[in-house]
Amino acid sequence: MKSTAAPTYPVATIAKLLLLSDRRVQQLTKEGIIPKAERGRYELAPAVQGYIRFLQERSLRSDSSPIDYHMEKARLTKAQADTAEIELAKARQDVASVKQIEKNLAGVFAEVRTNIRNVPDRVVSSLIGMTDEREFKARLLREIDLVLDALAEADVLIEPSEDEAGFSADGAV
Length: 173
Known about the structure:
Elements: E1 8-10, H1 11-18, H2 22-30, E2 41-43, H3 44-63, H4 69-91, H5 98-117, H6 119-127, H7 133-153
Antiparallel strand pairs: 1-2
Helix pairs in contact: 1-2, 5-7, 6-7
């Protein structure tokens, strides 16, 4: 009884059938995806089946995290709207950068420190000879309260720093 071997085909035939280049078929052969029957020749069924398995596995890997283009478009639209709102708020001077606030607060705290440290100089002469501890504390507290009230009534303006003036969120002038 004579056994019939499956016919084999050259790389060009397999490439044409799979819509690939000859070189790509050779690469897939090296990767063990398309089996080679003999030098430069391939059995049809194993070659097609190997390539189909390769495509299925690749499809399963990419299907594990499909891209929802509608969701991504919505995210982009929201980000653009948020950026436009921030730019509008900046134009209206409704917002200030953290850097601006830090700089201005440092100035306010320096002023508070200076004014409170000046309290002893302002009240020392009125405290000399005083023996009533309650009156002593009351005078100091009144002076401290005057300093704090004056600072509370002062307008604290957040001015853009020199390196931020005239710049938009993207750094453009």
